[in-house]
Amino acid sequence: MSKKITNIHNPPFKNEVKIRYHLDSNWAVMRKTPYVNDEIHGLERWWYESGSKAEESMWKDGKEQGLETYWYENGQKRHEEICRSDKQHGVATSWREDGKKESEAYFIRGQEYAKMEWNEEGSVLAALFSPPTLIGRPKPNTNTNPNPKSRKTK
Description:
- Strands 1, 2, 3, 4, 5, 6, 7, 8, 9, 10, 11, 12 and 13 form a 13-stranded antiparallel β-sheet that branches.
- It is flat and about 50 Å long.
- The chain is mainly β and about 150 residues long.
- β2 and β3 form a beta hairpin.
- It has no helices and 13 strands.
């Protein structure tokens, strides 16, 4: 059973940081989440019941923004990725529990465009590449008149 405790300041102030703690049945902290104006904002941390670190992620205005890291209970890094506005952006890497790299993927605004996977011996199992779509690129000018000065104005 998980318990939830929030530190509450009276009176609440605008842009005030509140920390919400999630505790296990023995009152050990399992998760620590900062809030500003009722949105997750700052470094959120999770722990295993053993007390070892499980996850850290950065948030800004309720959206994942920045580095997100996960660990195995033995302390070995399990996964690391970067998020921008709640979407993966950049390199995302996963490791096996023994520390050997398992996969690496590349994202642009949440769209995966390349991925490599390794077997336990370190040999490449798969390499997948797909060209990213050009997100946010300006639309071409569809004006059929090549001379914009010749347009009639009223």
